[in-house]
Amino acid sequence: MIKRHLTPRIRLGVAVTALAMVTAGCGGGGDGGSTASAGGSACGTEDDPITFGMVQGWTDQTGTGYLLANILQNNGYEVEIEMLADNAPVFAATANGDIDIFSSTWPERTHAAYMEQYGDQLEDLATYYEGAALYLAVPEYSDAKSIEDLTSQADDFGGKVYGIEPGAGLMKLTKENAFPTYELGDQFELVSSSTTAMLTELQNAIDANEEIVVTLWRPFWPNQTMPVRALEDPQGAYGDTEGLHTMATEGFSEECPKVAEMISHFKLTDEQYGSLEDAIVNKAGQGNEEKAVEMWLEENPDYAPELAQYLKG
């Protein structure tokens, strides 16, 4: 079983926002279970497990992190999962080496501010998904087609845009780009909450056939399972699509070259991504990510062996 920590504090070498954090394990030695690196040490051992950092409830992170952890564990590596409160401490802990791998990041736009601060201390191991996008979304039955339509329909939407965690890059872009670009600030309040709370508001509105506008993104499982659509963004407030990347602490590929090689070949298609998130959220349920990944791998039996081959030899 993958060790998972949800303790209240993580020791970081730099100041981060005052968020609830967890105690991070020390990862990054040499390469592989009993496989020595060039320096003679070993990574992924009981004394030196490979540590994945992620934010609870962020299914791109929990899905990819538990998937990679499962493959490593089944090939002789010791793995630990560290759950943190928000992206800022995960970036900081990965940069400092308290965490080895941050499996899903949006460095090209959404997490650009974090990359500016920590990028020199990180290794970009893989772009595992292309074409990710951020946007505002409404139910399919809504008359609103574009973000430009919102100002004339503010009363219908209750004057609120329901968002997610306040530290999310999506929230920063919405507040600093979308709101001023489309002059939403006089009529709309951007409500910070959590991904789970936002989806609850969305589902409740859909069940009642009511108007609602939320922050959303692709890839994300609600796009396949809920009747929602993105609002057009004619002024480009959310920018172009971007890739999702797997990051590691600086020096990881030298200390764990086989693991780094495996992750460099890590890819997910839209179908694979959607079904993985669906397994986490709807089949196994959040909090049961390890079980969800096992279910997904049973349905995709060729996936793990194709990646694991890079750990051999």
Please give the alpha-carbon distance between the first and last residues: 25 Å
Output the helix-strand order: EEHEHEHEEHEHEHEEHHHHH
Number of strands: 10
Question: Biggest sheet, in brief?
Answer: 10 strands, mixed
Count the domains. 2
Number of helices: 11
Second CATH tier, the architecture of the largest domain:
3-Layer(aba) Sandwich
Principal-axis shape equals: globular
Average pLDDT, all residues: 87
The CATH topology of the largest domain is D-Maltodextrin-Binding Protein, domain 2
Helix content: 25-40%
Counting helices, strands and paired strands, the structural category is alpha/beta
- Percentage of residues in DSSP E strands: 15-25%
Q: Would you state the CATH class of the largest domain? A: Alpha Beta
> What is the radius of gyration computed over CA atoms, rounded to a whole number of angstroms?
20 Å
Task: List low-confidence stretches.
Answer: 7-30, 32-41
CATH-defined superfamily of the largest domain: Periplasmic binding protein-like II
How are the SSEs placed, and which strands pair?
Layout lengths: L2 E3 L44 E6 L3 H15 L5 E6 L2 H10 L4 E5 L6 H7 L3 E18 L20 E3 L6 H13 L7 E3 L3 H13 L5 E6 L3 H4 L2 E3 L11 E8 L2 H4 L1 H8 L5 H15 L4 H11 L3 H6 L5
Parallel strand pairs: 1-3, 2-3, 2-4, 6-7, 6-8
Antiparallel strand pairs: 4-10, 5-8, 5-9, 5-10
Structural account:
By secondary structure, this protein is α/β, with parallel strands linked by helices. It has two domains: 196 residues, Periplasmic binding protein-like II (D-Maltodextrin-Binding Protein, domain 2); 99 residues, Glycine betaine-binding periplasmic protein, domain 2 (D-Maltodextrin-Binding Protein, domain 2, 3-Layer(aba) Sandwich), CATH 3.40.190. 34% of the residues lie in helices and 19% in strands. The chain has eleven helices and ten strands. Strands 1, 2, 3, 4, 5, 6, 7, 8, 9 and 10 form a ten-stranded mixed beta sheet that branches. The longest helix is centred in the first third of the chain and has 15 residues. It is globular. About 11% of the residues have low confidence.
